[in-house]
Predict the 3D structure of the following.
Amino acid sequence: MFNALLISSLYVLDQEKALDFYVGKLGLEVNTDQDLGFMRWLTVNVPGDARQVLLETPGAPGLDPKTAEQARELVTKGATGGHLFFTTTDCWKTYNELRAKGVEFTEEPTERPYGIDCGLRDPFGNHIRFSQPLAAAAPVGSDEKRSARPSK
Amino acid sequence: MSRAVEELNRRMLRARDAMDRAYAQPLDIPQLARVANVSEAHFIRTFRGTFDETPHRYLQRRRVERAMYLLRATERSVTDVCLDVGFTSLGTFSRSFRHIVGEAPATYRRRGPIKAVPNCFAMAWTRPSSFGEAVARKIV
């Protein structure tokens, strides 16, 4: 059966702006940038990590014009369901660095049962999170302690 | 035309994100319209056109969702929870909560502790919507 997840895809509305953001601000590196004629095959990865994210523009000829418009609108409503989750060794440090670069955060670093995490949007509306996992994080679905502090 | 819609959607999403983040604060329409960078006159109508509910309803249901969480994940008093999530009157809180959830805050609390779930997904999925389901989805 499978032995890895190699590429997943995310809709972006402009590949140049996507490069500015994902490479210029988030610090990913370009894995492949190739003109296939019918599309620009553009993938990025976390330095040192094999997994690639295809930054794909919804449009012809893969989608008819009307569907492409709908897909673009859904991206800008944050409704495509495309999420990326990154991990970091220091959530606050990364947060501060990215904030200084003008990244739009939806949530500042917050302690959760599974680690410290925060949320941001890419320029198009996609939801991105990164977390600093706890060494011994509570597994998803385990009972939360009632003494948990209110999250803000 | 479509690019203008995309830009407007993105601005409304920014205002919605602000409500998800700062629900505990006394947010008002002028503030949210500034976040969205549109005039106050257009904000409510445009937001509703984008997300099919008014900003007020969106925020009220976000506050109730967070209250549902705090009631079961913490031992804070109902009054504290009411204030924690941005309501300023216990009467309004109790009435809104009962109307949306279908039970009083103290009754809901007796369902017991909730399971640890990723917070961002809990917030996205358990905010009671305005779209016809009578009762909110509840974390079991």
User: Anything to note?
Assistant: Residues 144-152 of chain A have pLDDT under 50 and may be disordered. The longest strand of chain A covers residues 104-112. Chain A has one domain: 7-133.
